[in-house]
Design brief:
This protein is of the alpha+beta class. Helices cover 24% and strands 29% of the residues. The strands form nine sheets. Strands 13, 19, 20, 24, 25, 26, 27, 30, 31, 32 and 33 form an eleven-stranded mixed beta sheet that branches. The chain is globular. The structure holds beta-D-glucopyranose.
């Protein structure tokens, strides 16, 4: 007989009913049945949970990792019933994707009753050249469970000793200008199922297989201090191995390694400087399970070609008459080429380039001004970092000069005077921001430089013989790190919208593998500009990888005594003696801390802990009067009032000591925590003793930076905060304009809006007369400038990120989206919008690691409609003020008179506020 399965409870009720004689028991059973039926019919069906955005090392399915402990992260998709709380997760790691999908992980399994969506691999050791799969499944507190969702990553070479190839170069001197070409053919013996090219260069490279460039990236590998670290890139080159022989071509550029142009930073004297070189392992996996590696060696052939000069700083010269047709395809006759030279490695460390690549976005030009049949001026309509591409037709030997500038003079000619000031050319052969192309003749020719980029809006094309050009013949490529946009601001004020756009344009123009100050005059990794704008970056772009790599550069550059140079990377001399006080090089503290705040990821904080301690101890060794220092540059390019350097540098010393103390606490280093918390307190007291007048609530002379910096950075005693803020408001109201420099732009708007003066902050932010961000916009700016005064005689770059701290203020000061320090990564956060006068509506969106955070408001007659979105598995407290407030149609009780603090879980909420 078939054994009856156990009946579920409801299924057994009719059986019990039929057997029951007792009327009370009968009634009870009936009641149970009815309520159970109601429950079944009334409980809404729960929607399934989906996991999205699975990342390894914050990258999507990356190739060529070399970390032993990669980080995994995921997000919960926002459905119609967003997950309020992830109760637990299961993680499986294996080389077999099917096993992972079935919940098996031979390398690692982790089951944790945790709401974290970021964890670090801690399983069996990872092997080089291996593809791994990981699957994650979560359970929500309402019992719903996701499927096991699978992602992957692949390791590259795990150690420098894993390389089979050797570094090679050609036999030329580093002063020789033409770029070296290299080639080699490879005939795989069997059917290839997978192929990877692992390549590093000192300088820059372009890799071709069978005549095709293997990627659409620019300027690889990303700049590092070449004598300390070289980055290798992994390319999936499987598609090139479809049949027969494969020809490999490598073209090397100078980059920052062999800087031939001369400017004030003396990069041409860099200790590492040399002829460019590279190292490559091309590994193939055969169908029969065997593998083969083709490494670089002296059997590679090399020759010079049409790239007759290239400088990352100035431009590129190309003589098409010297082209080597077919040089990177199979069967090319290289009998006249020389053998490559095996050479020493530039550094002892080769690590994986695990960050967003540098890519280019094509942009059409807006207008053309034909001055003659030998001179054309093009206007892109906006300022960018990048290059131009030209389609040209003309007689053989015609020389084309393509000059790039940010501005025109009064006659409409290109004017480079604002960006050429630090250039020290030795001769006229290397004109600034000017590509030189020599035509080969005989048809349409395409030119775009490979190993250089510029900052520009205007392009002049001048030719030695008449040529015919139209607007369609020229295209720009906006070149920058390919960081995904994750933030959006839109308001009823067009100037504010344009300031936000211009800030993004300057941010991206200054993120070409590392943060720079400007894309034309310098291209230097100025530290101060970068930490002032770390939130500018992180509210708007998914840029963690770029900064983590830059922190590696910081470690590579730090001296034994803790000192860092003011520009990073530097060549080993410049910047250690100038510009590198705590107001600039606090990058070492502020950037890891903000990465932790925005991503909830403490990797950089952990790695920078030792270096930061050294750095703070060094400032302490220089400090005096119980915690002051005057090591620094001060409030750079101020409008008018000059805040004492000692004041701002001591504040950054305090910021560093505070971050160090909090980091020590986070990692359980109690002794350090006590030491540095006490140090921070002492610095604060020293600043207040010397600068604060408790009677008046003024610091120093009461300048805007002097009052806003201590408010913003938490120096002001609580009891005096409002007094100081009111003094600041009074000072600002004298002119209703900003009077700050670089350091003050970080603090002025927040110090006002956090202390009851949001409307006044908005007046400054939206101001359209000098000095203001809006003044630039009114004068046609599409990027941020270096100087408030457009007609100043120095510091006049038109694409500086320096004054970009207004952008995060839109998110924080108007949208009120604020991370919670105790629950980083926006696991928990605050929404404290300011409904500023002068705006009728405002929208801020920010894709946090947990999902979309939105904060939007609109005036509706007498009322204000505020709506917000809290992503899955996170919480927020909404802080609002008003006479009466309703949430999703329901009237709310104030926490205190007129003030509401409303804790929220994942979901969308709408508030109606009567002010
Ligand atoms: C740069 C600035 C930088 C400053 C520091 C300038 O030349 O362009 O952005 O922070 O120097 O001195």
């Amino acid at each position: 007989m078939k054994k009856a399965g156990k009946l579920p409870f409801y299924g057994s009720v009719p059986v019990i009913l039929a057997q029951t004689k007792n009327p009370t028991m009968l009634r009870l059973l009936l009641l149970t049945l009815i309520s159970a039926t109601i429950l079944i019919h009334c409980t809404p069906k729960k929607s399934p949970i989906a996991l999205t955005d699975l990342r390894t090392e914050h990258l999507v399915e990356p190739l060529g990792l070399d970390t032993e402990h990669p980080r995994f992260s995921w997000r919960i998709a926002t459905g119609d019933q967003p997950v309020k709380h992830q109760q637990e997760f299961h993680m499986y790691v294996d080389v077999d994707s099917v096993a992972v999908a079935q919940g098996k992980g031979d390398l690692w399994e982790k089951h944790s009753a945790s709401d974290s969506m970021l964890l670090t691999y801690d399983g069996k050791p990872l092997q080089a050249h291996t593809k791994y799969y990981w699957g994650v499944q979560i359970t929500a507190d309402d019992g719903r469970q996701s499927d096991i969702t699978v992602s992957s990553f692949e390791t590259g070479l795990m150690a420098t000793s894993d390389w089979k190839g050797t570094w090679i170069t050609d036999v030329e001197d580093m002063d020789l200008k033409p770029a070296p070409y290299f080639r080699k053919e490879f005939a795989p013996e069997k059917k290839v199922v997978k192929a990877r090219a692992y390549i590093t260069a000192a300088g820059l490279y372009e890799l071709y297989l069978n005549g095709q460039k293997v990627d659409d990236h620019w300027l690889n590998p990303i700049y590092t201090r070449f004598d300390r670290r070289n980055l290798y890139v992994t390319h999936d080159v499987t598609p090139f191995f479809q049949e027969g022989e494969v020809a490999i071509g490598v073209l090397l550029g100078n980059g920052w390694y062999n800087h031939q142009s001369t400017a004030v930073w003396n990069f041409h004297e860099a200790g590492w400087r040399n002829r460019p070189r590279f190292l490559m392992d091309l590994k193939v996996w055969y169908a029969d399970g065997t593998t083969e590696v083709l490494g670089t060696d002296d059997t590679w052939k090399t020759a010079l070609g049409p790239v007759v000069f290239n400088s990352i700083y100035t431009a590129e010269h190309y003589d098409a008459r010297l082209e080597l047709p077919g040089w990177n395809t199979a069967g090319f006759d290289d009998s006249q080429w020389k053998n490559a030279l095996v050479t020493k490695a530039p550094s002892e460390q080769i690590t994986a380039q695990s960050l967003p690549a540098i890519t280019g976005k094509k942009l059409p030009f807006a207008s053309m001004d034909k001055r003659s049949d030998q001179r054309y001026i093009f206007d892109l309509g906006r300022n960018i970092s990048g290059v131009t591409e030209l389609a040209l037709k003309g007689e053989k030997g015609t020389e084309i000069r393509v000059t790039h500038a940010e501005q025109l003079d009064s006659l409409g000619n290109l004017d480079l005077s604002n960006i050429i000031v630090h250039y020290r050319p030795k001769d006229s052969l290397d004109p600034f921001q000017t590509d030189i192309y020599t035509l080969k003749g005989g048809g349409e020719e395409m030119f775009r430089p490979r190993f250089n980029y510029k900052g520009f809006q205007y392009v002049e094309v001048e030719s030695s013989k008449p040529i015919d050009l139209s607007l369609e013949d020229i295209t720009a490529h906006f070149i920058h790190s390919d960081v995904k946009p994750i933030g959006k601001i839109h308001t009823s004020n067009e100037t504010i919208n344009k300031i936000w756009e211009a800030t993004n344009a300057s941010y991206l123009s200054n993120l070409v593998g590392y943060p720079t100050d400007c894309p034309q005059r310098e291209k230097n990794g100025w530290t101060g500009d970068a930490h002032i704008n770390i939130e500018t970056g992180l509210y708007n772009f998914d840029a963690l990888g770029v900064y983590e790599k830059w922190m590696d550069d910081h470690r590579d550059e730090q001296q034994e005594n803790g000192v860092l140079p003011s520009i990073i990377p530097t060549w080993g001399g410049w910047g250690y003696d100038w510009g590198n006080g705590p107001d600039w090089t606090s990058t070492i503290a502020i950037i890891p801390w903000e990465l932790y705040q925005f991503y909830g990821d403490d990797r950089a904080l952990y790695e920078m802990y030792g270096p930061l301690k050294k750095y703070v101890d060094h400032i302490t060794s220089l400090s005096y009067e119980g915690g002051l220092t005057d090591w620094g540059l001060g409030d750079w390019v101020p409008v008018k009032s000059v805040t004492p350097k000692e004041f701002t540098s001591s504040i950054y010393y305090y910021v560093d000591a505070t971050i160090l103390a909090k980091t020590a606490q986070h990692f359980g280093k109690e002794e350090d925590y006590k030491t540095y918390a006490t140090l921070a307190e002492n610095i604060k007291n020293a600043i207040n003793t010397k600068y604060l007048n408790p009677e008046t609530g003024l610091y120093g002379s009461g300048f805007q930076t002097e009052l806003s910096a201590p408010l913003y950075w938490g120096i002001v005693p609580d009891s005096l905060k409002q007094k100081v803020a009111d003094q600041l408001a009074k000072e600002v109201k004298k002119t209703n304009h900003i009077d700050v420099g670089l350091l003050g732009t970080k603090t002025i708007l927040g110090a006002l809006s956090q202390n009851g003066h949001a409307d006044l902050a908005f007046v400054l932010a939206s101001q359209e007369t000098y000095p203001s961000w809006g003044w630039w916009i009114k004068n046609g700016a599409t990027t941020l400038y270096e100087n408030w005064d457009i007609d100043a005689s120095s510091d006049l770059s038109r694409n500086h990120i320096m004054f970009g701290a207004i952008s995060p203020w839109f998110y924080k000061g108007i949208g009120g989206i604020l991370p919670n320090e105790d629950s980083p990564g926006f696991k928990d956060f605050t929404l404290k919008p300011n409904f500023v006068e002068g705006l009728t509506n405002f929208e801020a969106e920010f894709q946090s690691r947990y999902g979309l955070i939105a904060s939007q408001w609109e005036r509706k007659g007498e009322q204000l409609a505020y709506s917000c979105t809290i992503p899955p598995n996170s919480t927020a407290t909404v802080v609002l003020h008003g006479k009466h407030i309703s949430m999703n149609g329901e009237s709310m009780e104030p926490t205190q008179e007129g003030a509401y603090e409303i804790p929220l879980t994942a979901g969308d909420y709408t508030f109606l506020i009567t002010e």
